[in-house]
Structure formats: structure tokens, C-alpha cells
Amino acid sequence: MNFMNAKIVIPISVIITIVIVVFSLTQIETIEKETPPQFEESSKIDSMLQQIKEEKIKNDNSKKPYMPKERKWITSGPFQIDRSEYLLGEKIFVNIDQLNIDEKGKVIFLRPINSTNYLTYHTMTFDGSGQRNNYYFTPDLSELRGICSVDEIIGNWKVVFQGTEYSDLNFKVVAEIIPGFEDRY
Questions:
Q1: Within 10 A of 179 (CB to CB), how many other CB atoms are there?
Q2: What is the pLDDT of residues 39-81, one digit of tens each?
Q3: Which residues pair with 95 in a beta bridge?
Q4: Do 33 and 114 sit in the same domain of this protein?
Q5: Which pTM was predicted?
Q6: Does residue 82 sit in the same domain as residue 150?
Q7: 151 and 85 in one domain?
Q8: Domain end position, chosen among 41, 65, 89
Q9: pLDDT tens for residues 137-178?
């Protein structure tokens, strides 16, 4: 009877050992497959950080280093933009705060085409019954919009608040490019 038990126990032990070994090898392969993307991401992040450091050194050593101006919010009712003058490549931040629940309309950004005429560049809707409305965008060249030259972006812009009685806001985009954005303009 001992011999019969040994015939059963030995194959079961071998099968269990094989299953454990196969399972272990599978886990090792899975871990190895999951590990490289983490290293790749780390490498990409390191590369981006290095590029940022190089751009900062380049900016600091330039004849006219770029330093963002302090934000001076200009307002019309609950509408605010963060500056009155922007360089090419700078984002325009728009805050809309404390709208009445029934106030709805559009914020229309008009770019100059000459000293008296404007074209719509960007439109944002607002609705006082919704969540707080904060936006940003960058005046940029756009073949799709037919804006192919920096001259079509620089100048005195207007912000109109359609659907309200609030007065327009004005800001200027100047012919100076933020360092690192030269290729874009």
C-alpha cells in the first residue's frame, strides 16, 4: 500500500512543482514587460527637463531675457483678462466670475485687420447657470483661418461681450516672440 501511495504522491508533487515553476516564469516575464515603459517615461521626462534647463540658460544669457510681466487683470463687469499686452506665444487667460444665473452670451475676441476694422478670431460661450467659466487661448498663426503672417496677429485687439451690456475690453499683441516659440512664428 505504501508503494501505491508513493506512485500517486510523486506525480502529484511533480505536477505541482511544474505549475509553480511555470507560474513563476510567467510572473517574471510579466514584470519585465511592465518595467520598460516606466524607464521610457522617466527617460522622456529627463529629456524634457534637460530641454527646459537648456532653454532657461539660453534665455538667461540672451541680450533681452524674457521675464513674464506681472498679471494686471483688466475687467468689464464679471469678465477679466490677465493683461493689457501680450507677446506672440503668450496665453490669454479669461476669468468670468459671479455671473447672474440668467446671463448667457458669447465672449468674442476680435483681431485687427486695420486701424478701424476687426475680424472674429475666437469665440467662447458663457452661461451663468453653469459652472465657473475660466478659459485661455493663444493668438496664433492658422492656415485654416487664413492667418499666415505675424502681421495679422499683432496690433490692438477687442473683446466684445455679446448678450450683455458690459463694455468692451482692449488689449495689444506686440511683435515680440516668447523665447522657444520662434519656430512657430
A1: 16
A2: 666 788 888 888 888 888 887 887 878 777 888 999 999 999 9
A3: 80, 134
A4: no
A5: 0.66
A6: yes
A7: yes
A8: 65
A9: 899 988 888 888 899 999 999 999 999 999 999 999 999 988
